[in-house]
Specification:
By secondary structure, the chain is an alpha/beta fold. It contains 12 helices and 17 strands. Strand 5 and strand 6 form a beta hairpin.
């Protein structure tokens, strides 16, 4: 009897120490309890059926909140409600992907309720993707999708540091197969990163759609990190930051990136199957790589290049670019695109006039718009269709 009582007492103590059963926990987690534990967040941004976008910022103690967005110039004031949520609804001129930020009492912040950020070495804007009624070539569609891979290599050109790049391979690419593909080397702009071309530029989506529709050849797209100075300075390998230097990144692509790709991917290795393109500072670097080395790149596409004044004439004269007569013989495509409102338009107009005057066949695309990734995606869409023909 005494033994039985001891056993029952031990069992009671054991049950009391045991955690609440899963069933009881579920019963305790009522909607009311869940609402207290996980209060509903502010929805921002919200894309509305009429094409407008509502932005919300919870800042109950703020005296002033404004929206900075590439949908419009300047900042626009937001309106505060009784719960301390500031709101503004805006209708963009056209469907696109727009960077934006909130300015709270003079301090710029990304939207804390939006997980999509603009990859950048400096301030990282939030992104809102405004879709049209019908999907464009820049939107995800029901087609076979390629893959973005992060790759790393040790760069002797950059004093032994480990450097990143992103590589797009089209749907069905088999690293052990017999299909060899041409390669586009795609360079980002100043303060952007190796992720910007696909996270903001939608390069992978554009390629997926154009390849699926037969408007572009199957190709591999390499997106290197074109600003080594940031990494080198952080690791004590450089004591200066020269944003306009093209020699370092030209050598990086030629001596490090191309050999890595040709060793690790099934690619065609002749100049007829290599292209280089880039935006802004990447457009400057594209001209140095492509016009400077037509023996390596037969296709050159420069988007709003960061060249200044008549710098292009100096580059032809000092050998940064190959002689025009050489380019006439070697290049299969010379493509230049800059928007009418781009702050770099004058130098692009000058380069276009120089190439025309010297008889170098080329395309100059001069659409509406400024120095934006919106225009940049259009440039990429147009040029990808012309590559490797």
């Amino acid at each position: 009897m005494k033994k039985t009582i001891l056993i029952m007492a031990a069992a009671a103590l054991f049950l009391a120490a045991c955690p609440v059963s899963a069933q009881n926990r579920e019963q305790r987690l009522t909607p009311e309890v869940m609402a207290r534990l996980f209060p509903a967040g502010v929805v921002s941004p919200q894309c509305n059926p009429d094409g407008s976008v509502t932005f919300r910022c919870q800042a109950p103690d703020a005296e002033n909140v404004e929206l900075e967005c590439q949908m419009f110039s300047g900042n626009r004031p937001m309106v505060k409600d009784e719960k301390g949520v500031w709101t503004l609804t805006v209708t963009p001129d056209a469907p696109d992907i727009y960077p934006y930020a909130f300015v709270i009492d003079g301090t710029k912040v990304a939207d804390p309720n939006n997980m999509y950020l603009f990859p950048n070495e400096g301030f990282k804007y939030s992104l809102v993707d405004v879709r049209g009624e019908a999907p464009s070539v820049q939107d995800i569609q029901d087609v076979p999708h390629g893959k973005i891979s992060y790759r790393y290599y040790t760069s002797q050109n950059c004093k032994g540091i480990v450097r990143p790049m992103c590589v797009y391979t089209p749907a069905g690419y088999d690293p052990k197969g017999n299909e060899k593909l041409p390669v586009l080397y795609l360079i980002h702009g100043m303060t952007d990163t190796y992720e910007t071309w696909f996270k903001v530029g939608h390069a992978n989506i554009i390629l997926d759609n154009l390849i699926a529709s037969g408007q572009a050849r199957r190709m591999i797209v390499v997106m290197p990190y074109a600003n080594p100075y940031i990494e080198m300075m952080a690791q004590g390998k450089a004591d200066r930051y020269d944003s306009l230097d093209t020699d370092l990144i030209t050598n990086e692509i030629i001596k490090e990136v191309i050999p890595y790709i040709e060793k690790n991917y099934n690619v065609l290795t002749d100049a007829d199957n290599r292209a280089v393109a880039g935006f802004s500072l990447g457009g400057r670097q594209t001209l140095a790589c492509g016009l400077g080395h037509p023996e390596l790149f037969k296709y050159v596409a420069s988007y709003a290049p960061a060249i200044f004044g008549n710098e292009y004439e100096t580059n032809f004269a000092n050998g940064t670019y190959a002689p025009v007569e050489t380019l006439k013989k070697e290049l299969k495509l010379m493509w230049l695109g800059t928007g009418k409102d781009d702050f770099l338009i004058q130098s692009s107009l000058g380069l276009d006039e120089y190439l025309t005057r010297n008889g170098l066949e080329h395309t100059f695309y001069n659409p509406e718009g400024g120095h934006t990734w919106m225009n940049c995606r259009d440039y990429l869409e147009l040029t990808v269709k012309e590559l490797f023909k």
